[in-house]
């Protein structure tokens, strides 16, 4: 969430998120999708985190 807050409305790719959050060492291929799901649930407003098909994810306020 912190990385999204530092880059509001910017589309962040899966690779960018893995580098920033997991220092390039992701446990599995779908770790980003799983954690996006966790964040959407915790935020209580799933529409805040947008999936940008073919590009990544973006936080919209």
Brief rundown of the structure:
With 61 residues, the protein is an alpha+beta fold. 44% of the residues lie in helices and 13% in strands. The radius of gyration is 11 Å and the shape is globular.
Keyword list:
61 residues; alpha+beta; Arc Repressor Mutant, subunit A; two-stranded antiparallel ribbon; 3 helices; 2 strands; 44% helix; globular
Structural class: alpha+beta
The CATH homology group name:
Winged helix-like DNA-binding domain superfamily/Winged helix DNA-binding domain
Runs in which pLDDT lies below 50 for 5 or more consecutive residues are none
What is the 3D shape?
Answer: globular
CATH topology: Arc Repressor Mutant, subunit A
- What is the average of the pLDDT values? 91
Work out the count of structural domains: 1
In which range does the helix fraction lie?
Answer: 40-55%
Number of helices: 3
What is the name of the CATH architecture? Answer: Orthogonal Bundle
How many whole angstroms does the radius of gyration measure? Answer: 11 Å
Q: Main sheet, how many strands, which sense, barrel? A: 2 strands, antiparallel
Number of strands: 2
Order of helices and strands: HHHEE
Strand order of the largest sheet: 1-2
Strand % is 5-15%
- Spatial separation of the terminal alpha carbons: 13 Å
At the first level of CATH, what is the class?
Mainly Alpha
